[in-house]
Amino acid sequence: MSTEPFDTSRRQFLKSLATATAGLAVIGPAAAQEAAAGAGPKLKLGFDNFSIRAMNFKAPQLLDYAAAQKLDSVLISDLDAYESLEDAYLKNVRSKAKDLGIEIHAGTWSICPTSKFFKNKWGTAEEHLALGIRVAKTLGSPVLRCILGMGDDRKSEGGIEARIADTVKVCRALRNQAVDAGVKIAIENHAGDMQAWELVTLIEAAGKDYVAATMDTGNATWTLEDPMEVLETLGPYTASTGLRDSMVWEYPEGAWVQWTATGDGLVDWKAFFKRFAVLCPGIPANFEVISGIPRNFPYLKESFWKNFPKARASDFAKFVAMAKRGKQMQPPPQRGGKAEQEAQTAELEKSMKYCKEVLGLGQK
Asked: Residue 72, Cβ neighbours under 10 Å: how many?
């Protein structure tokens, strides 16, 4: 994989893209590794509660829903899903999850104090992270899913590198608490903030003994990445997941991305999970199903690249190849109320059925 910055002049743009595309090769894992992974237990299957956010379910309802769908895990990705953050309440949630045979992955939002996504609802960034670690420990979650921020942070002073540095400082301040709690701070590649290799730099700088990744394949397409390549980069660092399918197609100035139900997009999930079993053994396959939210990326305009000054041509070429395979989709209609609830549950349940029946995921 090239480590050279991507020159954004038009001539170099085309030259780099042509060279990188010509050199594409799929380098698979050793056959013995894959055979051994395939012989192991089935991956746990679950969902991120954001998938059915319109339902406004609290933690006990999320567990009941997961049990009714015969799922193995749930990523509860925000603290507002709990009716209380007192230990007694959280221990009851933990007990309920154990009785239902469901693994909980706890989560919260931005821990970067300078991100445009950061809110002081839970205090300072350090106070927020400390609270999240306590919640995760009490729930028996091995991770606390967090985020840095959003795509607009790439436009902030100092760019995404400055925001990564600020997040590293917060993580280091809570290192001892995370280690003592046995909770990994699992930072997600979120809403166009970090490319996979940038998240790796954050994890390595903070310390991979207590900081890990929450791998989101849908968000990867918002940073011009092929989810299969993101798996290769983030897989060895992954402790939690928020997986999603995407459709990508070209238009005159670049490409459109639209998220889809699992199986309706371009990700080759059979190949993905064959490799996932090798790189992420024992990690639940939690899907954050979001259908729609089309977004265009005019990467044929030179000005587009000012927010990706170190993008890698070989990685980008794989995204372009993905776009060339795609087909245009119409966005889903705008809904609200009960119609939105029904649409979200239908897309999630369709995705879970695909994962079970086509991909063979799930232990129940």
From this structure: 22
Percent residues over pLDDT 70 in the chain: 89
pTM: 0.90
247 to 51, 53, 280: CA distances (angstroms): 18, 22, 24
Going across the sheet that includes 245-251, the strands are 245-251, 254-260, 292-297
Q: Where are the domains of the chain?
A: 27-246+263-290+325-357
Task: Supply φ then ψ for residue 363, to 5 degrees.
Answer: -105, 0
State the fold for domain 27-246+263-290+325-357. Answer: TIM Barrel (3.20.20)
Whether residue 273 contacts residue 261, with contact meaning beta carbons closer than 8 Å, is answered with no
Distance between CA atoms of residues 77 and 69, nearest Å? 19
Interval 188-220: pLDDT, tens: 999 999 999 999 999 999 999 999 999 999 999
